[in-house]
# Entry
Amino acid sequence: MTAETVEPASKVELAPGVGGGGEIPSFDITLKVRRYNPEVSEEAHWDDFKLTMYGTDRVLDALHKAKWEHDGSVSFRRSCAHGVCGSDAMRINGRNRLACKTLLKDLDTSKPILVEPIKGLPVEKDLIVDMEPFFQSYREIMPFLINSGHEPTRERLQSAEDRERFDDTTKCILCAACTSSCPVFWTDGQYFGPAAIVNAHRFIFDSRDDAGDMRLEILNDKEGVWRCRTVFNCTEACPRGIQVTKAISEVKNAVLNRKI
Amino acid sequence: MAVSSEIQAPRSGRVAPKYTRHGSSRGNFEMLAWLFMRVSGLVLVVLIFGHLFVNLMVGEGVHAIDFGFVAGKWADPFWQIWDLAMLWLAMLHGTNGVRTIINDYADKDGTRFWLKTVLYAATAVIIVLGTLVIFTFNPCPPNAAAELLPSFCPAP
# Structure
């Protein structure tokens, strides 16, 4: 009765040592995390974590290791951990990036890796910022389809060319890396910010949408597109590779063409 | 430390006061200012390089520049208009640029207000004074002491 089911032999002959990926190189890093806890102190400070990480690890893995194995109070946002949800935008070595898309091996591991919260938004704890001002601007540009025509019984069709017009700005994941890299937003937080304009662009240039004029009027504000100084920080910061500054310029031109 | 047990729901509209926009500004001023910067910039490139070329390269070039050279230029309405356009465009272009920088960098509303007041006052003085000089310039003012007048002035 002991007819053990034998695993069928593999049909592919693998040389020994191949297929396992070999040894993943490991290295030691120092992770410097900006810590802030208003219940303990109004002052923020740096905490160092000495960690042994692997060549396949990302900054998010290092943060996990710090939190799970060293100090459970390290706080940061992350949801999907695969570059889509946009929760873990942070300032890594002075640049806004997603912790889950930044491989440690691509950074200079001989120096400490600095991790700070994104700038320009109120810090709540450690790497967590209050995103409400960011979403407030996002809501103001009405990021939803407005169509006054008859509602079709099936989907609203659109030509491939019409879809291509705003393809770039559909990629936004609302991580706030662009808005919190913008020096104009840093100064007083009044500027609508690149992310709101990118998401307005997504509907302004959508042939199925009828409220483009309303959005252009909103962005013709003193704090709207005209506060953009084409610094290009947003384009550099975008983890989705959206040409943010270009999108803002297109909205500027649309406002101009509508008025003149 | 007393920590409030009441946690507000997300999207309850609480936004730190610093970020609430002070009303919306309708009107096209910022758009026109943006457009003016680009147009005046282009025109200034032509005006300034034309000015430099005529003053420094044509004829005897830089060695010809003296009081009489300027007086001669401003005797011609063409150069009066050219210099007037250069003065106004450069002043307004520069003022708008500095206004932008003040808006971006001033932290407090009071600082912003006073910096802009000084800026606009300085601009107004320079534009008025410059315009006045271009149109009322007379190299041989009547009733001036003879030793102060340039040699080309008719003898009184």
